[in-house]
Specification:
- This protein has 171 residues and is an alpha+beta fold.
- The protein is built from 4 helices and 7 strands; from the N terminus they run ββββαββαβαα.
- Strands 1, 2, 3, 4, 5, 6 and 7 form a 7-stranded mixed β-sheet that branches.
- A hairpin with a 5-residue loop joins strand 1 and strand 2.
- It is globular.
- It starts with 14 loop residues before the first strand and ends with a helix.
- The N terminus is likely disordered.
Length: 171
């Protein structure tokens, strides 16, 4: 709980208090998601699995809300499989992307934890009908091109980190 004037921020509640002009406090909803940069060697180069979300004309990384009791890493693995149809094993955490957006007039503070995954099996685009409504299209994108192809700055930064890791290690 926060009391005005105490300067105390509590992060284990469903809303984050934000102090605005005039010392009033209004809640900000928080969301925690996880996503993956799933990489695979194709035609001599590294590629990542990208999605085009339904109703959008952009390329993005697969990601989604962390379920209660689920770890961020497990959520990333699940979301990648649900949204792309392919599976991978966890290599390492790449980092977090933080941003604020508006949803139905409410400010939402979101943290997305991204993980590097290595392809193990599956066919890109072989998505279960229950998840097909979320994803319009899937594609292997060259990891070299991903920092300019992906639509969102934070995701481009995660792809750049993955590119650096793949360039310096055998995976």
């Amino acid at each position: 709980m926060i009391t005005p004037g105490e300067g105390l921020w509590v992060w284990n509640t469903s809303v984050l208090p934000v102090q605005t002009a005039g010392a009033s406090i209004r809640p900000v909803r928080r969301e925690f998601s996880a996503g993956g940069v799933l990489v695979r060697r194709l035609r001599g180069g590294w590629h990542l699995a990208a999605i085009r979300p339904a109703g959008k004309d952009v390329w993005a990384l697969p990601k989604g809300i962390i379920a209660p009791g689920e770890s961020a890493a497990d959520a990333a693995i699940r979301e990648v499989t649900e949204e792309t149809g392919v599976e991978g094993h966890l290599l390492e955490k790449l980092g977090d992307v933080r941003y604020v957006y508006m949803w139905r007039g409410e400010r939402v503070f979101k943290v997305v934890s991204f993980f590097l995954l290595r392809y193990t099996r599956g066919r890109l685009g072989d998505i279960a009908p229950a998840h097909r409504r979320e994803v319009e299209e899937t594609r292997w994108i060259s990891l070299d091109d991903a920092p300019t192809t992906l639509a969102y700055k934070g995701e481009r930064e995660m792809a750049e980190k993955a590119l650096q890791i793949c360039a310096r290690s055998a995976l």
